[in-house]
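Sequence only, no structure available. Ideas?
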Amino acid sequence: MEAALQPVPAEEWWGRRRLRYNVGLIVAGLLAFVCYVGVVFWGISIGAIPDPGAITLFTTIVQGMGYLFMMAVANVCYLLGPFSERAIKPTDVDRYRRITFGLGFWFSVLLPFSIPALLASLCVVRPAWWHE
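Reply:
I predicted one. Tokens follow.
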């Protein structure tokens, strides 16, 4: 009779994926910023955003620092993975981990794109919003 395989401890399993999670956050942040710059220039071209100097070195540094802070918050939230595993005690640990990691990863990676998406929607739906 074969001995049942013991799952890898939660902290180890989640710890092995933290680098992948953080690389995803970094790539997403850079791409979201590129999208933001594109939306700002597009908004300027359609007259929805009046200030062509909206993106400066100062605003880029401030946004970068803000994003680093939010990455720290995301890494604290990452701890919810092993915590929820201990609290829920799933019967199929491997499946639970894959689904939970996937949902958390994609939510975290897509969240930075909400800023350029919101700005673009404001430019389309209410192009005079900046002037009000």
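Residues 24-131 form one domain.
Hope that gets you unstuck.
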